[in-house]
Every structure is written in C-alpha cells, then in structure tokens.
Design brief:
CATH topology of chain B: Umud Fragment, subunit A
Shape of chain A: globular
Order of helices and strands of chain A: EEEEHHHE
Structural class of chain B: alpha+beta
Number of helices of chain A: 3
Radius of gyration of chain B: 15 Å
Largest sheet of chain A: 3 strands, antiparallel
Distance between the termini of chain B: 42 Å
Radius of gyration of chain A: 13 Å
Order of helices and strands of chain B: HEEEEEEEEHH
Oligomer: heterodimer
CATH topology of chain A: Arc Repressor Mutant, subunit A
Largest sheet of chain B: 8 strands, antiparallel
Helix content of chain B: 10-25%
Number of domains of chain A: 1
Strand order of the largest sheet of chain A: 2-3-4
Chain lengths: 88, 137
Amino acid sequence: MKIKNGFALRRFADQWIAVSVDELADTRNTLITLNKTAAFVWEQLQTGTTRDALITALTEHFAVDQAVAAADIDRFLNEAREAGLLDE
Amino acid sequence: MNNPEQLLTENGFYAATVHGHSMEPLLSDHRDTVYIEPCKTYRKRDVILFRRANGQLVLHRLIRTDGDVFLARGDNDRKAETVTPSQILGVMTAFTRNGHTLYVTSRRYRLYSRLWCLSKPTTRLLQTVVRIGRRIR
C-alpha cells in the first residue's frame, strides 16, 4: 500500500503538513496536518509498504511496543483509507 | 469546505503549493510550498496572499505600503497592482524551496527580498539575468 500521488510532505518549525501539489488553492486545497508519528508513517507510505513493515518501523523508530504500534498504524490506515488517500 | 480564509481563522495558518511563475526565481510552479499566517500590519517586501476582485488567489510581494492602498508585484512580473488591506489573507512566514524549508527571518532570504525591491531598472536587470540563466541551463 502507498499514499496516493500528488501530495508533498512539508515541515515548518514543529509542524508537519501534507499539501496537494496539483489542486489550485483558489477555492479549496487539501491540507493535512500531521503529528511527528503520523509524518513518519506518511513518509514510509510514500514509497509503498505493508502494514507489518509499518508496525516494525514504528517500534524501531519510536521505541514503542508491538501492540501500541499496531493500534496506531491501524488507526492511521483507517483514517487515510476513509479520506481516500491510500492506494492499495 | 477547506478554503484558505476558513483555515487561516481556524488553524492560524495556511499552506499550499505554488501554482504559476510570477514568484520565480524564489518559488517554482508545482514544486514549492508556502506557509501563510494572518497578519495585522504589513511591510514593504512582505510576500502576501490576497484575493483579487474576480476571486483569484494571488501570492505577490508588497513593493509599496505607504497610504491606504498598497502596491504588489510578483518577483517575476513587470507590472504592479493595487491591493487594499481588506483583500489580504495573510503573510508568507516560511516556504519550501526544492524540498528545503526556509524562513523569512533568515539572512539569505532577507538579502534576496532586499535585492528584489530595489529600483525598477535593477529589478528588470535581475529578471533578465534569471531568464538568460534559465535558458543556458
């Protein structure tokens, strides 16, 4: 699975933002604010990965246990799926 | 809805990808992102996000701020246009250029914006140099 094309992940000070590259800003523009963990997951999903690989990456990077990481990943993936941001 | 005015009020910031060539060589079309924050006072050299009477959203630089009506122009444009403070949504406080984040408080950026707000002949000379440079590349 992978995050759909057409987004750029940007960092401004302590804020992580994913912005649409192609949408014109005149009326609406997809702008997603992310926390540090979500930005890390988003980054992994830019190149294509699996749920299991995401959980492993999260446990290694943030020193959290498997169950916590799995819950976080599932929540992120569900939200991204609902928003139509995932290519599976 | 997800419009800039609403996001600026609710979140205190707005970010979008640049579309168009008017702010080159600083900001490139479909590549760079700008970070906008609401502002109450404006200064010469500020890059502002404003709405034209026809509804179009524009990101240009203020080149004159004395009086009630300001003048704004794209770094790559020759013609300036008038802007009233009520048309302005916010000021660019940071941007990404080729993926790297830069803040308007940085020395490098301040030098660039000073150069770009010098006299008209100097600005035109800079624009020509940039255009020639791009052709050679």
